[in-house]
Structures are given as structure tokens and as C-alpha cells.
Amino acid sequence: MTATTRTRLSPQERRSQLLDLGVRLLATRSLDELSIDVLAEEAGISRGLLYHYFGNKHAFHEAVVRRAADDLIAQTAPPVDGDPIERLLISVTAYVDYVVANYEGYLSLVKGAAGGNDTLREIYDEARSALTDRVFREDAQAGSGLGTIITDTPTNRLLVRGWSAMSEELVLTWHAHPTGVSRDELIAIMATSLPALVAAQPDA
Amino acid sequence: MTATTRTRLSPQERRSQLLDLGVRLLATRSLDELSIDVLAEEAGISRGLLYHYFGNKHAFHEAVVRRAADDLIAQTAPPVDGDPIERLLISVTAYVDYVVANYEGYLSLVKGAAGGNDTLREIYDEARSALTDRVFREDAQAGSGLGTIITDTPTNRLLVRGWSAMSEELVLTWHAHPTGVSRDELIAIMATSLPALVAAQPDA
């Protein structure tokens, strides 16, 4: 509202920066290991200031996980144009690379969501719905999405959800025990699976 | 060692009977809701006797879940002979019916295993390995198993594991939100998916 231009960050920008740092820290540690203390030390600011930004540990974890889920959704967005199978391949590649780069944090989100933490469950479900609903929604927008080969039926919605769970299992298992399968092979397995599953159904 | 024949159960048989009761109770409640008190009341015996059989609550839960996993493995065993696809269909049907009949307990096993309980994780992994390794192992025995259409390669081991995760997601999602897909359709989706996934791979 004044003519003064400040170079310091707004509280909103500062909070956002701290969330990014939290997500980065989550790449190599679980959510349980990501405390306000750890973030304060890495950010070089006081614990008190962090509590000012995030309220409490629970809210801090929720905000970091929500940011991580948003990152995942953004990074795995397929390109707007192009061949549906090619776009699926690009999205799957981004997903594999995201999970590998953020393994510990991703694993703790999966565990926390499955283990009964309601907030984590909600964020996880939102992320998964965003990833799977996208298959159908983008068709309407682009006219060249996967929806052109995967029609929106109850069976296909279930299949896409199942494929999503399969993909998660594949990348987590592969990262833990990579024996005999390369990254490119893994990506090919995942990308070829979805159209194959859809085509195999009796009503396809 | 004596000539006396007693009709009362041996401690081993009594313990086994109590485990069966525990598994039945788990059909409609989570593991957290299955206490020594609940079992004692249902079995009509004292808490003290139950502690005698199982030691503590943790060991009791472990024993019940192990029994439930053994039941699942036994009930979903495909018949020894017959067409591989037909045998897969029978196994998948048994799996769907098992999960539906034991929904709460099954869900709490999945949650507990994913949520970081090491004992549950171990039992869950054993059960899943038994279910997936079976696809390959039975071929060697019967000469007519799925192994005749699914060769034992790193890619196929990964695929079968992924299919197993997908199947779990499908039946749990379907049971929670059955909209538009019948039990028979669900079973057909799961049974057709595995051969389709394998056939779709570049090296198939």
C-alpha cells in the first residue's frame, strides 16, 4: 500500500519456502523423522517462528504432505497435446522419477495413509483421485487424452484405480529390490499395462 | 501314555479352537477392537486362561492374524488340475469371497502392515509372497499351472506382485463403493487382468 519496495519475503512466500524445504527434507527421511527442530535447524530460524507459521507439529506435517502431494500431481501431469500412449509414458516416467527422488517421504505418506492417519489418508486419496480422474477428465478438455481410448465406465474407473495401486507397488518394490529390471523396463511395464488392462475387459 | 481316553480337547486343540474364534470375530471388527476381553466373553472362559494360552495381547493378535493369513492362503489355493485360466478364476473367486466375508479384519491387516507394525507387515508379506510365488511354484509341481503361460522372469515376478496389489485395491474399493460393477464382473476383471498384463509386455 506504500511506495516502499521491500526485498524481504512476504509471510506467505516465507511459509511457502519453508514448505519446499520440508518437502526436500522428506526425500531422505520419514515424516516421523521430520520435526520442527529439524526444519528450524535446516532453515536457520527459530522454532518459535516455525510455530508461528504452522501452529503445531500436526499442522506442519499436514502442510508439508499437502505440498508434496501437490508437487507429485503437478510433476506427473501429462503434456496437453500428443498421442495418448506417448502422454501416458511421459506421465509414468515422471511418477517413477518422483518416487525414486522422494522415496522416504513418499513411503511414509503411503504408510501413514494406510495406517489410519485420517489427514494423511485424505491427502493421499485426493492425490490418487487427481492422478486417476485425470485419465478421464483430460479427454474432455483436450480431445486427445487417454479418454479417447479409455471410456468413462464403472469398470474402467475401477481398473484405472487398480492400475494406480499396481504402479505404486511396482515402483516401491522395484526401488527396494531392483534385481533384473531396469528403470526403462519398469516404465515400459507400467505404461503398457493400463491400455492392456482396459483392452482385456469383456466389454472393451 | 496311559490307556485313558479323554474326550476333552488337548491344550493345542483348545488354542487352535480359540484362534478360529478370534478369526471369526475379526470378520466384523478391526484388530484394535479384538481384545482379550472380547475373546474371553465370546469363548466363555476367563481372561486368565487366555493369557495362559497366548501370553499377552500382542502375541494373541499375532497368532490370530497368522491364522487368518493361513486361512486366506488355504482358501485361495487353486485346484491342482485343470486349465490354468480356469484355475486362476477359481482362486480369484475365493479371494474376493474371503475378503468380503472377512472385510474388517482384512482391512485392519492391510492397514497394520502398511502402517509400520513389523509383525503384521511380516505376516502380510508372507501371505502375499505365498499367493504370488504360487503362480510360479505350482507349475513345477503340476505341469499345468499358470507357469505354463507365465514364465518365471524378473519382469513377470514384478507383474504378478503388481497384479496382487491391484487385486487388493480392486476388491477393497469395490466393497466400499460397489456402484455399477457386479461381483461376477469384478472377478472377471481380476482374472482376465493377469494374463493380459503378462501378454502385453514387450518380451512376452
Automatic annotation (TrEMBL), chains A, B:
One of its GO terms (molecular function) is transcription cis-regulatory region binding. Residues 12-72 form the HTH tetR-type domain. Residues 35-54 bind DNA. PROSITE patterns: HTH_TETR_2. It comes from the Bacteria. InterPro entries: DesT_TetR_C (IPR054129), Homeodomain-like_sf (IPR009057), HTH-type_TetR-like_transc_reg (IPR050109), HTH_TetR (IPR001647). Keywords: DNA-binding, Transcription, Transcription regulation. Gene3D superfamilies: Tetracycline Repressor, domain 2 (1.10.357.10). This is Transcriptional regulator, TetR family. It comes from Nocardioides szechwanensis. The lineage of its organism: Bacteria, Bacillati, Actinomycetota, Actinomycetes, Propionibacteriales.
